[in-house]
Structures are given as C-alpha cells and as structure tokens.
C-alpha cells in the first residue's frame, strides 16, 4: 500500500478511520473451493475482503461475502470460500490494511479447484470529495 492508493472505511474498522486499499477482479469459470493466502513476508498487517459481483468503496458492506485479516506471525489463510460460477462470474478481492493509514508491501496468492483470472480492478462508482469549512 502506498499513500496515493484509494481510501475507504473498511468493514470491521473504525468508522472514523480511513484505510488504503487495492482491488482485484477475480473471474472464476467453475464452481469450486478457492483459497486466498497471504505471504508471511508482508511488511504490514493486512485485511482482505471478498465481494460478489461488484465493490462500492462508499458502501463497503454491499455485496460482501467474507473478510479476514493476517497479522504478521499469525495464520496465513485469509479466506477459503466456495465460489459459484455462472459462465464467468466476477468477484472483487479488496486488500487493505489492518490499521488505518498504514503503508508497506504485501503479497497474496489464490489457489483454486479450477482456472480463474485475476486483474486490477478500479471501482467506477468511487468519488473522492473534500469538504472545507470556512
């Protein structure tokens, strides 16, 4: 995570804090069990959320399937989920930080029963606004 990444209020986080995030689109082509695991070499504690279909940063619980965290030195398995495919179904994997405004490097991998495709996802409904009081 870097300071220029997008921010949102993550599920399970403090509503007054912002968290950097990066989103990935995962397309699965067959129903099966897929595991998302974190590298034990991450430089920060991460939090992972899986969404069905789409991800809306301004509504972080919409379409939410599962969330889990990886605290350095703890268990590596973040999410194990049975994903259902309707021809080529889209899920959004959001990697964020466990603590607000944290930066650092991370790595994760996805193992699955069948083939899948992963790409960077940029939410199209995300608008960042700044309010100033005078």
Which terms summarize this structure?
134 residues; mainly beta; Jelly Rolls; six-stranded antiparallel beta sheet; three-stranded antiparallel beta sheet
3D structure, described in words:
With 134 residues, the protein is mainly β. It has a single domain, classed as Jelly Rolls, CATH 2.60.120. 0% of the residues lie in helices and 45% in strands. Strands 1, 2, 4, 5, 7 and 9 form a six-stranded antiparallel sheet that branches. Strands 6-3-8 form a three-stranded antiparallel sheet, with no helix packed on it. It is globular, with a radius of gyration of 15 Å. Residues 126-134 have low confidence and may be disordered.
Task: State the domain count.
Answer: 1
Within the CATH hierarchy, at the fold level, what is the topology? Jelly Rolls
Secondary-structure content class:
mainly beta
Counting DSSP E segments of at least 2 residues, the number of strands comes to 9
* Helix proportion range: under 10%
Residue fraction in strands: 35-45%
CATH architectural designation: Sandwich
Q: Quote the average pLDDT.
A: 77
Query: Main sheet?
Result: 6 strands, antiparallel
Kindly provide the name of the CATH class.
Answer: Mainly Beta
Distance between the termini: 32 Å
List the uncertain runs: 126-134
Radius of gyration: 15 Å
Number of DSSP helical runs:
0
- Overall shape: it is globular
SSE order in H/E notation?
EEEEEEEEE
């Amino acid at each position: 995570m870097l300071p220029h990444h997008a921010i949102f209020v993550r599920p399970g986080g403090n509503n007054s804090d912002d968290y950097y995030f990066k989103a990935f689109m995962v397309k699965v082509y067959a129903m099966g069990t897929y595991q998302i695991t974190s590298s034990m070499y991450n430089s920060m504690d991460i939090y992972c959320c899986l969404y069905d279909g789409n991800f809306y940063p301004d509504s972080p619980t919409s379409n939410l399937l599962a969330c889990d965290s990886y605290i350095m030195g703890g268990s590596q398995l973040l999410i194990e989920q049975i994903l259902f495919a309707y021809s080529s179904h889209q899920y959004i994997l959001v990697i964020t930080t466990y603590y607000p405004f944290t930066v650092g490097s991370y790595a994760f991998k996805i193992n699955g029963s069948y083939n899948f495709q992963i790409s960077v996802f940029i939410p199209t409904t995300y608008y960042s606004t700044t309010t100033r009081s005078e």
